[in-house]
Amino acid sequence: MFFVDTIELEGLGNRHYLAGGRHAAVAVDPPRDIDQVLAAAARRDVRITHVVETHLHNDYVTGGLELARITGAVYLVPAGAHVSFARTPVADGDTVTVEDGLELRAVATPGHTPHHTAYVLAEQGTPVAAFTGGSLLIGTVGRPDLVEPRLTEQLARAQHASAHRLAAELPDETAVLPTHGFGSFCSSAQAEGENTTIGHEKNANTALTTDVDTFVAELLAGLEDVPAYYAHMGPANAEGPAPVDLTPPAVADAAQIAARLAAGEWVVDLRNRVAFAEGHVAGSFNFDADGKIATYLAWMIPWGKPVTLLAESPEQLAAAQRELVRVGIDRPAAAATGSPRQWVPEGAELASFPRSTFAGLAAEDTDGIVVLDVRRDSERAGGHIEGSVHIPVHELHKRLGEVPAGTVWVHCAGGLRAGIAASLLDAAGRDVVAIDDGFDSAAEAGLTVVTG
């Protein structure tokens, strides 16, 4: 009997897999912190004989090279991917035996990237699972615009053809196990559901239910901004990532934190947005450790700029480090744990700002108030507060000068991104109120919501 274990990384919105039989297993698109994969193999008491990549990833740094080195596994990388390290190139139709009765077959599925390859796991010759990477996802496909703008339409058409190839070649009951689609910006849309099969996708996936011209037009029209750090992931994966170092960073005291802020470095407070608003080190930014810290911090920080992390506990710090190495932010310059009173010189005041709701905004006199919407373009198009200013959160740190004068009431869809934005505005010396509320409450509060 075969098994498939899923390693889910909610922060990046990806899934990674360990699949095998009684004695051997293959790791698919492993994350950079490979200890999770090794632990999964130990629980199964299997040896990892093969590590496979569906493509050169754009949204995270792979652990494949290091995992193969440590385990002695064969490292399979699509032949069309240009890399700087030794690997076993794999082409359409190539097969490997995981163990007796269990075989893995490569299927060329260009679209997400030109070299994208899916892998079909067959037991006694019968396909049982398809590891589809960024090709066929749950209800959607991986986005085709991450390689080269001039190739985007061509790759979108290839996505459609690849989805149809998988649907035609595999039995309906074959499990579809994608890497992307669970919140990753590599997906062209959010996955619909948790599990799926080829048969289900034939009825539910837009790539399989619409003609190619309609599919391509709708796919391209729905593409949104690409996280800035993606530009660094592909080259890192092509070069061959270094092993991770998750040892604790150097400890920063209050004087060192102040000095780093004065030097223009980023000091990031990992506590939740409620605690941050109540009291924090002036000039620090708030990226909630329980939110998408890897995505938003990596998206916004100038690449390579030193970052100091402030955490409630060593556990919170360690979890954040793990999230950040996955996107190539390898070593914090320094860190401190505890409470904000410990992070400022004795006698110094903590900074703070108020939080409110859409009902609170509706009750305010609008004179001197700026309503700032930091959601993405597609969210705003679905409805926004009349007269509000729009700057997506990932652009705000570069566009603070565009925020009009006045007290800034900042909102997103639920509160997390508003908390990030409020911390940036507060650090810049602006009077800010963070709206910690769901956007659905805006109209209910009596605010005028318009579309378009």
TrEMBL record:
Designated name of the protein: MBL fold metallo-hydrolase
Keywords linked to the UniProt accession: Metal-binding
Pfam families in UniProt: Lactamase_B (PF00753), Rhodanese (PF00581)
Residue ranges of domain Rhodanese in the record: 261-352, 365-451
PANTHER family (alphabetical): PERSULFIDE DIOXYGENASE ETHE1, PERSULFIDE DIOXYGENASE ETHE1, MITOCHONDRIAL
Annotated signal peptide: none
Natural source organism: Streptomyces fragilis
